[in-house]
Specification:
Blueprint lengths: L2 E11 L5 H12 L2 E6 L5 E8 H11 L7 E11 L7 E3 L2
Parallel strand pairs: 2-5
Antiparallel strand pairs: 1-3, 1-4, 2-3
Helix pairs in contact: 1-2
Length: 92
């Protein structure tokens, strides 16, 4: 299958609730590469690359997020993969 990139912007109560740590754990378990980071506007951004089924699984997981998160909305955009990531990590 072709490798794709998905860019997610997650809003709600997603900062200060370990959302990034859980995202990194889930993405690594799915075999994805990319980054997760907090944005200054209170959202969390995930940029992930992998097969479509892996990306869909991450997006489905993100709808609930970490145990204390409250996800209000997810903006998702599929983009061409760049191959720039060699693992999945939390970025600052």
């Amino acid at each position: 299958m072709a490798i794709k990139r998905e860019h997610l912007l997650i809003s709600g109560k997603v900062q200060g609730v370990s959302f990034r740590a859980y995202s990194e754990q889930k993405a690594r378990a799915l075999g994805l590469t990319g980054i997760v980071r907090n944005l200054t506007d209170g959202r969390v951004e995930i940029i992930a690359e992998g097969e479509e089924s892996q990306l869909e699984a991450l997006k489905q997981w993100a709808r609930d997020g970490s145990p204390q998160a409250v996800v209000d909305d997810i903006e998702a955009e599929i983009e061409p993969a760049t191959g720039e990531f060699d693992s999945f990590r939390t970025a600052s």
